[in-house]
Design a protein that fits this description.
Number of helices of chain A: 5
Strand order of the largest sheet of chain A: 1-3-2
Largest sheet of chain A: 3 strands, antiparallel
Structural class of chain A: alpha+beta
Helix content of chain A: 40-55%
Number of strands of chain A: 3
Radius of gyration of chain A: 18 Å
Distance between the termini of chain A: 27 Å
Shape of chain A: elongated
Strand content of chain A: 15-25%
Oligomer: homodimer
Chain lengths: ~120, ~120
């Protein structure tokens, strides 16, 4: 924060607070699915988001490195399975993103109602 | 669309329809500001979004190449001015993004209300 930050109130834009790690479309989708189900099998995620395995892996790695998801490889019977879980930090980051998006949408909807009367 | 696309209804995820050209955080911010004011001076945009000139220029170029904004350089008196205007296609793309984000948020809020009763 600059000491001479005299930005008028209400001028800071909600997109400034978005975090690219979460906001990127594929990662946002993965976090949304995991937020809903807490844990998901890799193949389920891949199908839910209509991604290639390589693309999903790459994005999960970014999320894992940021501590937002945990990836566990194991077996179910003889079949290899990869489970993906959202972490507490992941949930918080996802809900922060959703809050910023709500604020963005509120502004768009307010603007649609007519010119600023303030 | 694959002819064997038998994805159950309601499974297609709203983030699949997001367009990176619009969704990227800085460009989303620029489009949001331009959607509100139709046209804005480069410096105004830069300050509203708290960006460096180089960063904003780079993103405006992506939007201009996609036909979503128009950039006009001119003078106001002796001062060089750059005006940025959202195009009809830009407005449509922005509102599509907002519609997808609303759908995403609706799902998150629905999930927060408790387990699926369907």
């Amino acid at each position: 924060m600059s000491p001479i930050d005299e930005r008028p109130a209400g001028q800071a834009h909600p997109t400034q607070s978005l975090d690219d790690t979460v906001h990127q479309r594929t990662r946002l989708g993965a976090l949304a699915v995991l937020h809903e189900s807490a844990q998901a099998e890799f193949t389920f995620l891949r199908e839910a988001l209509d991604l290639t395995a390589g693309n999903l892996s790459r994005h999960l790695q970014v999320l894992e490195e940021a501590g937002l998801v945990e990836v566990d490889k194991g077996y179910e019977g003889r079949r290899p399975r990869t489970w993906v879980r959202i972490t507490k930090a992941g949930r918080r980051a996802f809900l922060d993103e959703i809050a910023q998006l709500k604020e963005l949408i509120r502004r768009v909807d307010d603007a649609a109602e007519g010119p600023d009367r303030g």
